[in-house]
Amino acid sequence: MEELATEKEAEESHRQDSVSLLTFILLLTLTILTIWLFKHRRVRFLHETGLAMIYGLIVGVILRYGTPSTSGRDKPISCSQEDRLFTTLLVNVSGKFFEYTLKGEISPGKIHNVEQNDMLRKVTFDPEVFFNILLPPIIFHAGYSLKKRHFFRNLGSILAYAFLGTAVSCFIIGNLMYGVVKLMKLVGQLSDKFYYTDCLLFGAIISATDPVTVLAIFNELHADVDLYALLFGESVLNDAVAIVLSSSIVAYQPTGENTHAFDAAAFFKSVGVFLGIFSGSFMMGAVTGVVTALVTKFTKLHCFPLLETALFFLMSWSTFLLAEACGFTGVVAVLFCGITQAHYTYNNLSVESRSRTKQLFEVLHFLAENFIFSYMGLALFTFQKHIFSPVFIIGAFIAIFLGRAAHIYPLSFLLNLGRRHKISWNFQHMMMFSGLRGAMAFALAIRDTATYSHQMMFSTTLLIVFFTVWIVGGGTTPMLSWLNIRVGVDPDQDPPPTNDSFQVLQGDGPDSERRNRTQQESAWLFRLWYSFDHNYLKPILTHSGPPLTTTLPSWCGLIARCLTSPQVYDNQEQLREEDSDFILNDGDLTVTYGDTTITANGSSGPHTATTSLDGRRTKSSSEEALERDLGAADHEVTSRGTRLVFPLEDNA
Amino acid sequence: MEELATEKEAEESHRQDSVSLLTFILLLTLTILTIWLFKHRRVRFLHETGLAMIYGLIVGVILRYGTPSTSGRDKPISCSQEDRLFTTLLVNVSGKFFEYTLKGEISPGKIHNVEQNDMLRKVTFDPEVFFNILLPPIIFHAGYSLKKRHFFRNLGSILAYAFLGTAVSCFIIGNLMYGVVKLMKLVGQLSDKFYYTDCLLFGAIISATDPVTVLAIFNELHADVDLYALLFGESVLNDAVAIVLSSSIVAYQPTGENTHAFDAAAFFKSVGVFLGIFSGSFMMGAVTGVVTALVTKFTKLHCFPLLETALFFLMSWSTFLLAEACGFTGVVAVLFCGITQAHYTYNNLSVESRSRTKQLFEVLHFLAENFIFSYMGLALFTFQKHIFSPVFIIGAFIAIFLGRAAHIYPLSFLLNLGRRHKISWNFQHMMMFSGLRGAMAFALAIRDTATYSHQMMFSTTLLIVFFTVWIVGGGTTPMLSWLNIRVGVDPDQDPPPTNDSFQVLQGDGPDSERRNRTQQESAWLFRLWYSFDHNYLKPILTHSGPPLTTTLPSWCGLIARCLTSPQVYDNQEQLREEDSDFILNDGDLTVTYGDTTITANGSSGPHTATTSLDGRRTKSSSEEALERDLGAADHEVTSRGTRLVFPLEDNA
Lengths: 652, 652
Description:
By secondary structure, chain A is mostly helical. The first copy, chain A, is 67% helix and 3% strand.
């Protein structure tokens, strides 16, 4: 009888799991259908992520107020005689042994909530799910779909915004929030501890920008490519910075009695942790990317696209696990793995695998992102430990505004001192405006909601995500028009606009002038890296580039011969054509959110390339290759959705 | 301090999780690379699944004997004062509350094993993982990639083998094993209870055949298509039958004192459960398939392939969850959902989505299958409750041999009475030989390993899977040659072999003769269904078929006009061409394991179709459509791997 009851209970629990997962799937299905309707009717004031949140909110309300509050099958208190914590418990129930596993600590005040509502608990995911299952495909996809040409042209500025900017923003928001917390203490609004480190952690969490909505609209309207590159590059890298930054803040553990006072040793240890984790994760991602490139280069795996795709998927995933197993940050490793895979491995894949891998990660990314956003909507009502403090929330909104302003404008000023193509005021305003928060901020905030301060931070983050996604998402098109930012830009042939200081390179001018400009524009560090990459890394890791036998010193002859792909020798005459193929295929990686989902047929790329670039190739130095890379047509496949007739085009 | 220790412990546990997942991923990576090597060198004596098992075995040995036996952080005995079982425990450890969740019962003799080795426990998955995560993509893929033409031509025989055959096999194996158990009791080899229902359950578990290896080799060698259809169809449906059969046997619970005696009421209840679960799951799968077809037909979702693919994926997955939530069998529902999606929804998808969905499920299927097989290898050493009984194992091997013989030969004899194209002796021997066991048997066996009898059954199943996969996998090519089964068959134009009683339809004979034969061949039930499908379902659910306004009675005029796709009216003249497009695209679904991974370019199909079928179309009755469907070219894209020069071709 007892056995039967247990079985029935397990079955019931399994059924409830199915129902809660089904809820999310139906939510996503509904979102997809509405997205289609919006796209079909060209509704642009609400992005799909905003929509997913709204549906999540509605379902959250229904679950919260519509389902009966079941008294849990929990056993509230027992076994208090032990003084050590175990990960597994064996419980003897009338002669039978049952195994229990540790789920986590519950703060004593919340014990009653635990037994409140079974359904609410079922739809509440373990925060680890976000970090280990949902974020990796999103981040990998971001790395894998990086528009390389514009990204590398603005690399210096992007790195500055991502590293310096995020640090500045984190510090400023942290300090402002500490002021708010002090104020709350004075007014008596704070009922529990809130330390300075908590404020800094909040700064790190909320500094991760995620302008997915803005970028989707940019893509749809073909807005300025350099602004797109700056925003996209910043947001991708700043996720990585924010995540490592928050880990280092958590790792800040002063030794003395007062564990929340400043301690120089602990501070420098935290800085060390930041540098260690970041560079370790970076290395880890780059190394697996390189290993995948080598494997796909030296085996003829491309004859079997299924095997190739599976290998690619597994290697990319193993980056994440490897980094986690070594104590680094898997998400950051996956980002750099994605960039490496796009830069090297992608060239070695068969045409079929290229489209397969792109589409696979595109679908995973789409599902994961919409899931996170609808979960956010749901969490507003189903999460059981919300602490909404009006003062803190208002303070936070002001702080993120000031924090973003305090890094965009000064940094842009400093960068403009060194940049040939200045970042105009309009661009700065647009970057300022695009600082909305999304999936990463949410995942970081939900990671630890054990204490009072963390719960308040989580609730505030949720509200910030809602409002920035809705308001900024809806306001992007008017803002673009108001700031006079060019839309309908064809990244291939646009002439440099006369009234804009942000000059675009590919003019119709003669070759020498173009090279000259390219040289001036690129920093020496970037040029150094580029020539190293072009002369050594590309030939070693891919089938393209000059043969190593010509670039390596003669005493490495044997190694050079072994490492150089036979294709390079075979096609040495057509080398330049091939190289440009790869460049174009790289550019082809552009995967978009909007109407312009790019068709998988990469085969049309090379032909266009050969025709358009045919006349220019006269020598094969890395200089010229660099110039080609930077100037080469990005080959944006036109979408099958119609280009919208937009009021902006009258203004332009 | 305590808090820190808990955090450290959680971190350590997370790291170990990563390491164990990483182990599996590296295992799969290794398998993929070796598969490539084998394919590259045309090694055919070992299939990839066999290979995955061998690697699993090796890693299992290393984990078992190579890692130190850590003393677990478990707490062996406590809290024995309670008399009720709870799914959640709250434990008070020095003032802090921790939540524990129930994992399952542990037999008292195994308590010491539990604390044996952390690493071994980490790599041991929850059996639910197999049922809820790994099996669905495998089964869905099987349904989605069904070769429709040959499948439907042999539908009667396939259903007979799958339903009657599995039931017979289950009953015979169950009874033989009961004899073996009796014998073991006599000799004193049995140390615990082993009931008749356990034996029947073993019969059901082990009756699920999985000739993945055989089919892969068939595909590679282009062996006879009808034999392929029989084997594939049987194995796909018999998985569904076996899973429902085992559930009904578990549900067999006599009411009286002696819970393992025969009870007519309980028996009929079990039969009712079987019929209920099977038809319920079937309905569930068909309904979601139909809903997806309607959604994709009546929205213009195909303009956005990403949305379409995501919707398709979610709807197919929701079938599984819906069935589980309703108490049916998700895996079975997913199978029929796959068949419905392939038959209807596939026609509504955009060209891009067709290849996307195929490739997505192909990759998922490939990864899941290889994961299960390598896990099987691992489980032989890491599973901690093995009971190997030589008598039982030998008995089981004899029983599965006899069980398969007792359904293949008599059923084939009976079927041949009604079949126009007899199933020859050679085919029967080949079917007999191909009865190897795989993923489904393993998943069913690992589902419940709580009792002595189930543990013995699990260990035996594992050994049976190993030996059948290795021996049958390696012996398929010699067997084909020995049984004189045609290889290198081109399913499109093969002339009927003169010496074989299994005549193939597509001859060069005149139209009337062909139709005649087709009519004779098809059973009336099938013809009824076909005309219903062609006249009503296809026009309602897809863009093909005759307009409903012509097939429905005139009083349904309004509904007919609403439901008929505008495309049908627009293209009414080109209707037949379009229809044949779809047929060919259906045939194109053939996704293979071997060298012949078919390229995703469905676009070449229609052209061939239009040319090859052009002359024949004169009227559009469902009769002729049926004939076209059955006779139409299957359009097998030739692989890029070379066709092997095989000794068989000398014999033929």
